[in-house]
Amino acid sequence: MDIVLVAGLWLDGSAWDDVLPELEELGHRGIAVTLPGQGDDAVAATYEDQVGAVLAAVDAADGAPLVVGHSAASTLAWVAADRRPDAVTGVVLVGGFPSTGETTYADFFEPTGDAVPFPGWEPFAGPDSDDMSPELKAEVAARTVPVPVGVTKGVVHWIDERRHGVPLTLVCPEFTPDQAREWIESGDVPELADATALELVDLDSGHWPMFTQPAALAALIDEATKR
Length: 227
Known about the structure:
This protein is α/β, with parallel strands linked by helices. The protein has helices at 20-25, 47-60, 74-83, 134-143, 149-152, 177-185, 190-193, 209-212, 214-225; strands at residues 2-6, 29-33, 66-70, 90-94, 115-116, 147-148, 168-172, 198-202. The protein is globular and about 40 Å long.
């Protein structure tokens, strides 16, 4: 099966380099998307440009692909279900949740000029990054790309209620399924509260399992293709 992979803020398609061969061994073709503004020098890119890139990858896939979104890009993966509910096999969210409709995509950090640079590891101290060695942190930080403000401040619009029936898997890395369930039941994540085919799965890792647990992450993605 074709699997469209979308990494979160500051990362390009190479973030999935260790996951791709694991998926191939499991019989899948991984399609790692480099988003506009996150690796292609498109400093004026917008949120809608990134939406367009994900939808283009879905449209170009062989058959109905599974779409995987990491961190903030969980919203972009869920957009695929919203805009192409009949054309995707399912969606996997890794350590992230879709934004609530009519809110900004990822306005979490202060910009520097027209872009939001990687803020360093201090904001992610603790469970997010405890499984990363200093060497790995340095390597990942060196590969990060500032994200255009036009992306982070873009407004999310949900269109098609049929997205709620698309098979959805939430991979819980630095938090547990029980914690995620509490957030969903409390109303903090309305998009997941309305999902009718949601499965929560645990992964013993930090926030970036594509770097620290690529085989385990690939195995969970493979399981999601069977739903």
